[in-house]
Amino acid sequence: MASIQTNDPAVRALVEENSRLKRAIEELTVLNDLARSIGALQNSQEIMQTIIRRSLRAVDAEQGVITLVGEETDDSMKTLVRTMVSSRDQQPFHLNQNLLGWMHINRKPLLISNPQEDSRFRGVKWDEAISTLLSVPLMAKSKLIGVLTVYNKKSGKEFTDGDQRLLAIIAGQSAQIVENARLYEEEKAFLKLRHELGVAATIQNNLLPEKMPEVPGYDIAGSSVAAQMVGGDYFDFIKVDEAHLAFCLGDVAGKGLSAALLMANLQATLRGQAVVTTSARDCMQRSNKLLYHSTGSDRFVTCFYGILNSDRHELCFCNAGHDTPYLFSSSDTPQRLSSDSLVLGMLEDFPYIEKTISLNNGDVLVIYSDGVTEAKNIADEQFGEERLEDVIRKHRGESAHDIITRITEAVRTHMGNTEPMDDITMVVIKRI
To answer: Taking the model in full, what pTM does it have?
Structure first.
C-alpha cells in the first residue's frame, strides 16, 4: 500500500479539521464542566473561585483573578470584589489600575506577552514576576461587571490566540451567573436590612408614651413623626411622685437599629435615675456617666430634661446640648430655656447645670427637635426658628395637642413635596 504523503493538500486539510474538532471538543468539555460546577452555586465567592480554577486549568496558567467593578458612574473603576486563586505558593498579583481602565474603554480581550515592554502601557509599573498575562471582560447585558485575568503560563511559554479565545468564551458563559449571584446577595442583604429596620421601628414605637400624662392644672402633649422607617428622636414622661412629673426630649446620633437600641438604653437610663431624684442636674450627671460607659465614642444624645412640680408650679430643667425650647408667658417675646450643658455620652464627667423657673397661668412651653427648624423646602430654605416662633405665638391660646398640630402643618406646608430629612418631634406643656 502506498504511504500517505503529509504534504498532500487533502491530508493537511483533514489533519487541520481533525485538530479543530479536537479543540472544539476540549472547549465544550471545559464549558460543560464549568457549567455543572457553578450551576448549583449561589455564593458569588465560590462561583468566582470555581471559574478561576477552571480557567487556570484550561489555559495552563499559574494565577488568576476576577475583579468585580461598580456601575458605569464616575466611580465605575472602583473595585467591589477581588477573588484570587493561585496554583503555587506565591504573592498574589494585583490587577493594575491602568489595565482595568483599558478594559473599561475597550471591553475586549487583551493579551500581553511582555508587560514591561508593551507600548500600550508605557510608564506603567508591573509586578516583576509577571511575564505574560491574558485579560478578558466579564459582560452581562452589555454592561461590564468585572475582569477575568490570568498570569504566566506554567510552561514558561506565552499565551496563545487559542487561550485568548477559550478564556473569552469562559468569561462570556459565566458573567451572567456571577452577576445573578451578586444581585441575589444584594437582595438578601437588603431584605435583612429591611427586617432590622422593622425591628428598630417596633423598638422605637414601644419606647414612646402610649398616652399623655394627666396633671391637674396642666395640658400636656407630645408627638414624634419619623422621617424614615426609623428615626433618632425620643420623648418621654415619667411620673416621679404625685407632685413631680419628669419629661424629656432627646435626639440620638445616627439612624437605624443602632439608634433605636441607643434610644432604648437612654429610656432605661433616664427612667432609672428620674425616680430617685427630683434634681435635673443629678439625673443628667448620672445618666451621662452610665451612657458614656455603655456606648461607643461616636454615640451621643442631645437631651432636654425637666421636672415639673405641679404643686409649686415650678420647672427644674437641664438642657444637654439640645435645641433651645420656647417659653411663652404674657409677653409676646418668648424666653429661651438653655443651660449650656454638653450632650450626653461624650465625656464621662461633666458638671451639668440646672435652672428653675416658675410657670404662670397661660404659660406655654414648646420643646422641639431640629427636624422642625431644619426642615427644608425645594429652594433648600430651612423652616427656621423665626417661623416656629410665629406659629407658636399665633396659636398659643389653643390646646397643647393643637399647638403641635399647627406647627406640624406649618412645617409640612413649608416643605411642600420635599422629602423630610429628619424626625419632627415636639413636647408642649401648658399651664391652664
So the answer is: 0.65
